[in-house]
Amino acid sequence: MARGKFLSLLVVVVVAGLSVSGGGAQKLGNEVVVGTAPYRIHTLFSVECQNYFDWQTVGLMHSFRKAQQPGPITRLLSCTEEEKKTYKGMDLAPTLEVPSMSRHPKTGDWYPAINKPAGVVHWLKHSKEAENVDWVVILDADMIIRGPIIPWELGAEKGRPVAAYYGYLVGCDNVLAKLHTKHPELCDKVGGLLAMHIDDLRALAPMWLSKTEEVREDRAHWATNYTGDIYGTGWISEMYGYSFGAAEVGLRHKINDNLMIYPGYIPREGVEPILLHYGLPFSVGNWSFSKLEHHEDNIVYACGRLFPEPPYPRELKEMEGDPNKRRALFLNIECINTLNEGLLLHHAAHGCPKPKWSKYLSFLRSKTFAELTKPKQLTPRSRQMMEVDVQKQDVGEPEKSYPKIHTIFSTECSPYFDWQTVGLVHSFHLSGQPGNITRLLSCTEEDLKQYNRT
Asked: Which keywords does UniProt give here (predicted)?
């Protein structure tokens, strides 16, 4: 286990007339002391041993400090034994090494995203820090924190986590939820930003992992019309694992579509996002950025290298007259500039030569940039929750519940049954038949020697 040296923040927040509400903030005279029970916050994020995640880690860690996020942070690092032999980034963040499940130890399924719930389960079981925390904030690595994420200030309570809205999780409204949770009516389309009480996470985490495995195995329902996954490859199974797992343990989220924004999107009027999630390409004029173009980028370890500089703030004022669209452009450049500032400081801290003066480096070190990127505070509109109708309406599915179904058919090792198998399995997928299908294949030893398994 490698652990970087970072200071935890002890923040005293003066709160007037704070009321007791479930597991939310409680009144302690006139002060809430963040960092002491019951106001201890811990932030988690999950990554693997790759350059792709290392530069994201540098950006997230820099924004964590810059935004003055209270409490400690832990990187849940999943590495294969082979990856660990050459990995250089153990000191990038306070780190807990967790066993890699990228290749599932039982099924052989290759699905690195499962490391997120598996890492959380491991942290809860094996980290001493997990024993001394009241609230947990779970983020993705490809995020920039703009201001303190304090769960009870967002409205989180014990039994009612706060989460960002992921509207494309259409499986919450169709047969997918009915197949994978006994409480499909509790399935929430959430992800990205998760803020919850530690007791809720302890109940949820094992189910999150289990449901992720379950959805990965349900290949019959990976299609876009069931999952919303445009690739239809089961890549967002972990997201459904979270939503179905939360439904199983009875958690109902307070859903907020204002706290997190993708660069490139236009913020709502009066809303100050406190989290940038750069999961999608974004652009400003002729300049653009996509994280996928930097999948193998060793920029963390290349002294003096930064991402291409975006336009300067004064150029945006000339570029866009609409105030909200201009705010969106400012968020775009804030995202990449914060990443570059983090890389610049990281290189300096690791013995890189001082880079030559440039207009852009001067800007990143300027009071103007510091003022533009100082910690943001929640606005009243940022706190507004979405109204969620508990009565779910199915999308393209009949009004009935499906039990868990498995289809079985029996064949022998001969071409006669092979063409029938192709037709049956093809029709199985086309028809949307719920559940999985298994062929019971009977072969003699002699048949097996020549049989070409399909």
From this structure: Glycosyltransferase, Membrane, Signal, Transferase, Transmembrane, Transmembrane helix
